[in-house]
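Reopening this ticket.

The earlier resolution said the output was attached, but the attachment link was broken on my side. Pasting everything inline this time so it's all in one place.
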Amino acid sequence: MMTLEEMRKRKRQLGYSNVQLSNLTDIPLGTLNKILSGATRKPRMEALEALERVLNDTTYQYGYVSAAPYMLHEPTSTYGSAAANDEPREKGPGDYTIDDYYDLPDDKRVELINGVFYDMAAPTVQHQLIAGSVHAQMLAYVRRKKGKCVPMISPVDVKLDADNKTMVQPDVIVVCNRDRITEKRIEGAPDFVMEVVSPSSGMLDYVRKAAKYIEAGVREYWIVDPLKNRILTYDFTEGSVPEIHPLSGKIGVAIWGNDLMIDFDEYREMM
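Inline output:
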Protein backbone atom coordinates (compact mmCIF):
# COMPACT_ATOMS: atom_id res chain seq x y z
CA MET A 1 0.00 0.00 0.00
CA MET A 2 1.32 3.45 -0.94
CA THR A 3 2.01 5.90 1.85
CA LEU A 4 0.23 9.25 1.93
CA GLU A 5 3.40 11.03 0.82
CA GLU A 6 3.84 8.59 -2.08
CA MET A 7 0.26 9.28 -3.16
CA ARG A 8 0.85 13.04 -3.07
CA LYS A 9 4.05 12.67 -5.08
CA ARG A 10 2.40 10.41 -7.65
CA LYS A 11 -0.53 12.85 -7.93
CA ARG A 12 1.92 15.68 -8.71
CA GLN A 13 3.74 13.54 -11.29
CA LEU A 14 0.50 12.75 -13.13
CA GLY A 15 -0.76 16.32 -12.87
CA TYR A 16 -4.12 15.37 -11.35
CA SER A 17 -6.25 17.87 -9.47
CA ASN A 18 -8.31 16.76 -6.48
CA VAL A 19 -11.46 17.22 -8.56
CA GLN A 20 -10.12 14.86 -11.24
CA LEU A 21 -9.10 12.25 -8.66
CA SER A 22 -12.52 12.50 -7.06
CA ASN A 23 -14.17 11.82 -10.42
CA LEU A 24 -11.88 8.88 -11.17
CA THR A 25 -12.13 7.21 -7.75
CA ASP A 26 -15.74 8.04 -6.85
CA ILE A 27 -14.45 9.39 -3.51
CA PRO A 28 -16.41 12.52 -2.52
CA LEU A 29 -14.27 15.62 -3.02
CA GLY A 30 -14.50 16.68 0.63
CA THR A 31 -13.37 13.24 1.78
CA LEU A 32 -10.54 13.16 -0.75
CA ASN A 33 -9.32 16.60 0.37
CA LYS A 34 -9.18 15.40 3.97
CA ILE A 35 -7.32 12.20 3.05
CA LEU A 36 -4.64 13.95 0.98
CA SER A 37 -4.20 16.78 3.48
CA GLY A 38 -3.71 14.29 6.32
CA ALA A 39 -6.74 15.59 8.21
CA THR A 40 -8.27 12.11 8.23
CA ARG A 41 -6.05 9.99 10.45
CA LYS A 42 -7.63 6.64 9.58
CA PRO A 43 -9.05 6.74 6.04
CA ARG A 44 -11.23 3.85 4.95
CA MET A 45 -9.27 1.06 3.30
CA GLU A 46 -11.65 1.07 0.31
CA ALA A 47 -10.82 4.74 -0.34
CA LEU A 48 -7.07 4.17 -0.10
CA GLU A 49 -7.28 1.18 -2.44
CA ALA A 50 -9.28 3.22 -4.97
CA LEU A 51 -6.71 6.02 -4.83
CA GLU A 52 -3.79 3.64 -5.25
CA ARG A 53 -5.50 1.87 -8.14
CA VAL A 54 -5.96 5.14 -10.07
CA LEU A 55 -2.52 6.53 -9.22
CA ASN A 56 -0.86 3.31 -10.39
CA ASP A 57 -2.89 3.06 -13.59
CA THR A 58 -0.48 3.78 -16.45
CA THR A 59 -2.90 2.83 -19.22
CA TYR A 60 -2.90 6.36 -20.56
CA GLN A 61 0.35 7.62 -19.08
CA TYR A 62 2.50 6.31 -21.90
CA GLY A 63 -0.02 6.00 -24.66
CA TYR A 64 -0.59 3.71 -27.58
CA VAL A 65 2.90 2.82 -28.75
CA SER A 66 1.96 -0.14 -30.90
CA ALA A 67 1.30 2.33 -33.72
CA ALA A 68 5.07 2.37 -34.32
CA PRO A 69 5.07 -0.72 -36.62
CA TYR A 70 2.85 1.19 -39.01
CA MET A 71 5.45 3.93 -39.41
CA LEU A 72 8.51 2.12 -40.60
CA HIS A 73 8.75 4.09 -43.83
CA GLU A 74 10.67 7.33 -44.20
CA PRO A 75 10.43 10.06 -43.14
CA THR A 76 8.00 9.36 -40.34
CA SER A 77 9.82 6.38 -38.85
CA THR A 78 12.68 8.48 -37.46
CA TYR A 79 12.90 11.53 -35.30
CA GLY A 80 15.48 14.19 -34.57
CA SER A 81 19.07 14.54 -35.62
CA ALA A 82 21.41 11.58 -35.37
CA ALA A 83 24.90 11.85 -34.03
CA ALA A 84 27.77 10.98 -36.35
CA ASN A 85 27.75 7.30 -37.34
CA ASP A 86 24.52 6.75 -35.40
CA GLU A 87 21.28 5.47 -36.85
CA PRO A 88 18.33 7.85 -36.37
CA ARG A 89 16.07 6.65 -33.59
CA GLU A 90 12.47 5.60 -34.06
CA LYS A 91 9.77 7.89 -32.79
CA GLY A 92 8.19 7.14 -29.46
CA PRO A 93 5.26 8.48 -27.42
CA GLY A 94 5.41 12.26 -27.37
CA ASP A 95 7.15 12.49 -30.77
CA TYR A 96 4.28 11.74 -33.15
CA THR A 97 2.68 14.45 -35.28
CA ILE A 98 -0.41 14.89 -37.40
CA ASP A 99 1.62 13.71 -40.41
CA ASP A 100 2.09 10.37 -38.60
CA TYR A 101 -1.61 10.32 -37.78
CA TYR A 102 -2.53 10.57 -41.45
CA ASP A 103 0.08 7.93 -42.36
CA LEU A 104 -1.71 5.25 -40.32
CA PRO A 105 -3.83 2.68 -42.17
CA ASP A 106 -7.47 3.70 -42.62
CA ASP A 107 -8.67 0.87 -40.37
CA LYS A 108 -6.65 2.10 -37.36
CA ARG A 109 -8.83 4.26 -35.10
CA VAL A 110 -6.61 6.33 -32.83
CA GLU A 111 -6.44 9.79 -31.34
CA LEU A 112 -3.28 11.86 -31.03
CA ILE A 113 -2.78 13.94 -27.88
CA ASN A 114 0.48 15.76 -27.16
CA GLY A 115 2.36 13.49 -29.56
CA VAL A 116 0.99 10.24 -28.05
CA PHE A 117 -1.34 7.83 -29.85
CA TYR A 118 -4.35 6.42 -27.98
CA ASP A 119 -6.23 3.43 -29.31
CA MET A 120 -9.98 3.89 -29.75
CA ALA A 121 -12.04 0.81 -29.03
CA ALA A 122 -15.17 0.19 -31.11
CA PRO A 123 -18.13 1.94 -29.44
CA THR A 124 -20.90 -0.07 -27.79
CA VAL A 125 -24.54 0.09 -28.85
CA GLN A 126 -25.38 2.17 -25.77
CA HIS A 127 -22.51 4.53 -26.59
CA GLN A 128 -23.85 5.09 -30.10
CA LEU A 129 -27.45 5.52 -28.96
CA ILE A 130 -26.44 8.20 -26.46
CA ALA A 131 -24.26 10.11 -28.92
CA GLY A 132 -26.85 9.77 -31.70
CA SER A 133 -29.69 11.00 -29.50
CA VAL A 134 -27.78 14.07 -28.29
CA HIS A 135 -26.67 14.93 -31.83
CA ALA A 136 -30.21 14.54 -33.21
CA GLN A 137 -31.68 16.82 -30.53
CA MET A 138 -29.02 19.45 -31.17
CA LEU A 139 -29.49 19.29 -34.93
CA ALA A 140 -33.27 19.67 -34.58
CA TYR A 141 -32.76 22.67 -32.28
CA VAL A 142 -30.37 24.43 -34.68
CA ARG A 143 -32.71 23.87 -37.61
CA ARG A 144 -35.70 25.10 -35.63
CA LYS A 145 -33.84 28.25 -34.57
CA LYS A 146 -32.17 28.66 -37.98
CA GLY A 147 -28.89 28.93 -36.08
CA LYS A 148 -25.37 29.21 -37.42
CA CYS A 149 -23.84 26.50 -35.19
CA VAL A 150 -23.12 23.06 -36.69
CA PRO A 151 -23.57 19.90 -34.54
CA MET A 152 -21.46 16.94 -35.68
CA ILE A 153 -21.09 13.34 -34.56
CA SER A 154 -17.94 11.18 -34.59
CA PRO A 155 -15.89 10.35 -36.52
CA VAL A 156 -14.66 13.81 -37.45
CA ASP A 157 -11.07 14.98 -36.96
CA VAL A 158 -10.54 17.97 -34.68
CA LYS A 159 -7.14 19.67 -34.67
CA LEU A 160 -7.15 21.45 -31.32
CA ASP A 161 -3.69 23.02 -31.22
CA ALA A 162 -1.22 24.76 -33.47
CA ASP A 163 1.66 22.50 -32.39
CA ASN A 164 0.84 19.71 -34.88
CA LYS A 165 0.71 17.07 -32.14
CA THR A 166 -2.98 16.75 -31.26
CA MET A 167 -5.88 15.32 -33.26
CA VAL A 168 -9.02 14.07 -31.52
CA GLN A 169 -12.39 12.63 -32.54
CA PRO A 170 -14.95 13.63 -29.89
CA ASP A 171 -18.27 11.80 -29.87
CA VAL A 172 -20.34 14.95 -30.40
CA ILE A 173 -19.21 18.51 -31.13
CA VAL A 174 -20.81 21.84 -31.91
CA VAL A 175 -18.90 24.36 -34.02
CA CYS A 176 -20.33 27.90 -34.17
CA ASN A 177 -17.48 29.51 -36.10
CA ARG A 178 -17.92 27.99 -39.54
CA ASP A 179 -14.53 29.28 -40.65
CA ARG A 180 -13.08 26.43 -38.57
CA ILE A 181 -14.80 23.80 -40.69
CA THR A 182 -12.67 22.56 -43.58
CA GLU A 183 -13.26 19.66 -45.95
CA LYS A 184 -10.73 17.52 -44.07
CA ARG A 185 -11.20 18.45 -40.40
CA ILE A 186 -12.11 21.05 -37.78
CA GLU A 187 -9.34 23.60 -37.27
CA GLY A 188 -9.37 24.79 -33.66
CA ALA A 189 -11.59 24.25 -30.66
CA PRO A 190 -15.30 23.44 -31.03
CA ASP A 191 -17.67 25.42 -28.82
CA PHE A 192 -19.17 22.25 -27.31
CA VAL A 193 -17.69 18.77 -26.88
CA MET A 194 -19.28 15.60 -25.50
CA GLU A 195 -17.46 12.33 -24.80
CA VAL A 196 -19.19 9.06 -23.89
CA VAL A 197 -16.94 7.09 -21.54
CA SER A 198 -16.07 3.49 -22.38
CA PRO A 199 -14.30 1.05 -20.03
CA SER A 200 -10.99 1.77 -21.75
CA SER A 201 -11.30 5.55 -22.12
CA GLY A 202 -12.13 6.78 -18.63
CA MET A 203 -8.72 8.18 -17.72
CA LEU A 204 -8.43 9.83 -21.11
CA ASP A 205 -11.87 11.48 -21.08
CA TYR A 206 -11.75 12.61 -17.45
CA VAL A 207 -8.18 13.89 -17.33
CA ARG A 208 -6.17 14.34 -20.52
CA LYS A 209 -8.99 15.43 -22.80
CA ALA A 210 -10.51 17.69 -20.17
CA ALA A 211 -7.16 19.47 -19.85
CA LYS A 212 -6.72 19.75 -23.62
CA TYR A 213 -10.24 21.05 -24.17
CA ILE A 214 -10.03 23.81 -21.59
CA GLU A 215 -6.55 24.75 -22.81
CA ALA A 216 -7.70 24.91 -26.44
CA GLY A 217 -10.69 27.14 -25.69
CA VAL A 218 -13.66 24.74 -25.70
CA ARG A 219 -16.54 26.55 -23.98
CA GLU A 220 -18.51 23.54 -22.74
CA TYR A 221 -17.54 19.90 -22.15
CA TRP A 222 -19.78 17.00 -21.14
CA ILE A 223 -18.58 13.59 -19.96
CA VAL A 224 -21.33 10.98 -20.18
CA ASP A 225 -20.40 7.94 -18.10
CA PRO A 226 -22.83 5.00 -18.53
CA LEU A 227 -20.69 2.87 -16.18
CA LYS A 228 -21.26 5.32 -13.31
CA ASN A 229 -24.72 6.31 -14.55
CA ARG A 230 -23.85 10.02 -14.44
CA ILE A 231 -22.98 13.05 -16.53
CA LEU A 232 -20.37 15.69 -15.71
CA THR A 233 -20.92 19.06 -17.37
CA TYR A 234 -18.20 21.68 -17.52
CA ASP A 235 -18.95 25.30 -18.43
CA PHE A 236 -15.36 26.45 -18.91
CA THR A 237 -16.52 30.06 -19.25
CA GLU A 238 -17.55 29.87 -15.58
CA GLY A 239 -14.67 27.78 -14.20
CA SER A 240 -13.29 24.24 -14.21
CA VAL A 241 -15.48 22.55 -11.56
CA PRO A 242 -18.13 20.29 -13.12
CA GLU A 243 -21.77 19.84 -12.24
CA ILE A 244 -22.83 16.22 -11.72
CA HIS A 245 -26.14 14.94 -13.10
CA PRO A 246 -27.80 11.52 -13.28
CA LEU A 247 -27.86 9.82 -16.67
CA SER A 248 -31.56 10.59 -17.03
CA GLY A 249 -33.87 13.55 -17.36
CA LYS A 250 -33.00 16.85 -19.01
CA ILE A 251 -29.80 18.93 -18.97
CA GLY A 252 -29.47 22.43 -20.42
CA VAL A 253 -26.79 23.28 -22.98
CA ALA A 254 -24.87 26.29 -21.64
CA ILE A 255 -23.60 27.60 -24.99
CA TRP A 256 -27.26 28.20 -25.90
CA GLY A 257 -28.19 29.71 -22.55
CA ASN A 258 -29.94 26.45 -21.49
CA ASP A 259 -32.59 27.16 -24.14
CA LEU A 260 -32.04 23.60 -25.38
CA MET A 261 -32.63 20.89 -22.79
CA ILE A 262 -31.13 17.55 -23.84
CA ASP A 263 -33.45 14.71 -22.80
CA PHE A 264 -31.37 11.67 -21.81
CA ASP A 265 -34.46 9.53 -21.42
CA GLU A 266 -34.93 9.54 -25.19
CA TYR A 267 -32.09 7.12 -25.95
CA ARG A 268 -33.48 4.61 -23.43
CA GLU A 269 -36.63 4.32 -25.50
CA MET A 270 -34.55 2.80 -28.29
CA MET A 271 -32.87 0.15 -26.11
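Reporter confirms the inline version is readable. Residues 75 and 100 are 9 Å apart (CA to CA). Residues 4-55 form a domain with the 434 Repressor (Amino-terminal Domain) fold (CATH 1.10.260).
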